User: What shape does this take?
Amino acid sequence: MIMKGNCRRHEQQAITLLVLCLVFLSFVQVVSAQPGDYKVLFDETRLHKRTDGGYVNRIFETEWYGGSDFANALRDKGFSISKTSTKPITYEKLKGYDVFIILSSDNDYSDSEIDAIESFVNNGGGLFLARDDWRGGTDDNYASNTIAKRFGVSFAKNGQICDASSHYGTKKKYRDCPKTTNIKSHAITVGISSFYFSSGTYIKDTGASKVLAYSDSDAWFDDLWDEYEGKWGNHVKDNDEKSGPFPVLSVMEYGKGRIVFIGDGGLFINSWLDKLADEKLGLNIVNWLIPRSDLTILRIYTEPNEPVENEDTKLNAVISNIGSRDAGDFKVKLYIDEVEKGYVDVDVLAAEDTQKWYWTKNFPSGEHAIKVIIDPNDVVDESDEDNNMKYKTIAVSMFIPWGIIGTIIAILIVSVIIIYDYNKKYGKKKKI
Assistant: This one.
């Protein structure tokens, strides 16, 4: 009985230890990077700290104001998630990642940190830059706005977008949670008909970015600051407050990379992520920011330039990777008159590299349709899948045996000369 009791006790202890290990591992899964094809880094060096000590948008925070749900949604899509919480931000920290996300920032970034972020984008990285409402007084060189300004964009300070007719809930206090429906067509907005803002600002200077979403025209920018009296917003449209529509979401191509600007990082916290299409919007943004390969066919040409029937003709295809990520393990297929006639296996085509492949064929006379397709099985994840095919029509001349014809002509000429000489010498007979 004692042995059975000890065994049962040890068994219970083992089960308890196993459960604790599973709980610990599940916790580790939230805070550590997971294996995946693409790496995403969250900036947690300057998160907004609440009065209760919690941090907004923190990726392991499971409270309503945390960002754990968004991080887990990205993991579920195969992204590897990490965070950086120590200053300074350097290019060495960033260069191993595909996307850098800044959703919340309450302190300024140094010039060297902004230089690092700019280099990261310029070299092919994706930047997801959000800016919530803030009371900046007369100074707009605050926190993440200084990063936006490096790229020629800036967010409006001292206010929040409100809407009395279209917002979350029914109470007046939710007027600072407007519903955004004025959305332009783009890869980021696929499947997005509306999303909420939560105490967000707007993009005051859009610069070279392309605006994808605007607030409603009846929205206004509720003042949060006054030089003398101080304001925290009254959720009422005052006469001196600016009216919409306001640009709230824009995108930019910069160097080899991409940037998304949005006037609210709060719509990606746990309590908002399941509202409307907020989660899908976040996933679409990150997916669009990922640096990818982009295979394209620059040229198809023949050698010789004017092919002749039944003679060897070299068909050349010049292919380039105009994307920012190396591409590998794909095929290039050749079709002649819509029939597959060959392929090559490509081990790797580096970003911004161009290579030539060729096939040697011979043709009957007439016109022939040449088609080359890159990556026909869609093995390579590309930013543009619509430029992987190219056509060319070639005209093949009938073979003319000029050597034989030349010989015949030469014989005829010689014959004519002989006959001429003969006639000249013996052509006329004397009369007797």
Notes: The chain has a mean pLDDT of 87. The chain is about 25% helix and 30% strand.
